[in-house]
Amino acid sequence: MPLVRVECSKRAAGVAALASILVSGCAYAPSISVLGAYFPDWLFCIVAGVALTVILYLVLSRLKASNLLWPSALVVPATVTLLSLAVWLVLFQH
Questions:
Q1: C-alpha angle 20/26/27, rounded to 5°?
Q2: How far apart are CA 46 and CA 40, in angstroms?
Q3: With helix as H, strand as E and coil as C, how does 65-86 read?
Q4: Closest by alpha carbon to 91, among 35, 37, 32?
Q5: pLDDT value at position 28?
Q6: Closest alpha carbon to 48 in 74, 71, 73, 82
Q7: Quick one: pLDDT band at residue 80, thresholds 50, 70, 90?
Q8: 87 pLDDT band (50/70/90 cuts)?
Q9: How many CB atoms lie within 10 A of CB 49?
Q10: Cα distance between residue 5 and residue 71, in whole Å
């Protein structure tokens, strides 16, 4: 019987150690105060990513190179994600 308890306690200790490592990145929530209300940083990054994607699309359309965005159902969300993450890296280095 004691062997079962030892195994359970080792397993529980392993799970607790793994959980503490995984949640260590959740120390604080980065946010920006806008008129007294706090908004998360990622919200601004997504808005900037969408705006930059629209600007990129308009520039490519004007240059007659919009065929580079051919499977738009895949390219547009990927571009929004790429630009949102780029804005996050440039503006919000904590």
A1: 100
A2: 11
A3: CHHHHCCHHHHHHHHHHHHHHH
A4: 32
A5: 66
A6: 82
A7: very high
A8: very high
A9: 21
A10: 57
| Helix pair 72-91, 41-62: axis angle to 10 deg | 130
* pLDDT tens figures, 40-73: 888 899 999 999 999 999 999 999 887 877 888 9
CB within 8 A of 61, min separation 6: which ones? none
Count Cα neighbours of 58 within 13 Å in the Cβ-side half-sphere: 6
Nearest-angstrom CA–CA distance, 78 and 58: 17
pLDDT in tens, 4-46: 444 557 777 788 888 777 777 666 667 777 777 788 888 899 9
